[in-house]
Amino acid sequence: MSTLTAPLPTDLQDLRPLLGRRLDESTAEELTAVHNVPRELEARRLYETLGAEMDGDWAAGRLTKENIEEAIAAHRGKHPYR
Predict the structure, then answer these.
(1) Which of 51, 57, 62, 74 is the most buried (most CB within 10 A)?
(2) Counting beta carbons within 10 angstroms of the beta carbon of residue 63, is it exposed (0 to 12), middle (13 to 18) or buried (19 or more)?
(3) pLDDT for 4 beyond 70
(4) Against a cut of 0.90, is the pTM above it?
(5) Cα separation of 8 and 1, whole Å?
């Protein structure tokens, strides 16, 4: 049976060894891609969290176009482009 059509185990005790074997059989290029997956997942989680926080700040009036522009101007004043 192809690994693409085989059902994935749902028990972590079964999934960990399977994943380990698949990593052992991976090429260097595939390992590089796999290495980036946790970073991508973390970035997505942070994006979702930040998005929810920003939505709340917009709704509460704590985040406005004006204070965003002020923050950008203050940052650029402290860190001018070279």
Answers:
(1) 57
(2) middle
(3) no
(4) no
(5) 12
**Position 7 pLDDT exceeds 90:** no
What's the rounded Cα separation, in Å, for the pair 72 and 78?
10
Smallest CA-to-CA distance from 23 within 15, 63, 49 is with: 15
pLDDT digits (tens, 9 = 90+) for 20-62: 999 999 999 999 999 999 999 999 999 999 999 999 999 999 9
Q: How many CA atoms lie within 13 A of 59 on its CB side?
A: 6
Domain parsing of the chain, residue ranges: 13-78
Q: Which residue in the block uniquely carries the two structure tokens 């970073």? A: 39
Nearest to 67 by CA among 49, 50, 75, 53: 75
Measure the CA angle with vertex 24, ends 19 and 26; round to 5°: 95
Cβ-based burial of 1 (10 A; exposed 0-12, middle 13-18, buried ≥19): exposed
Quick one: pLDDT at residue 75? 95
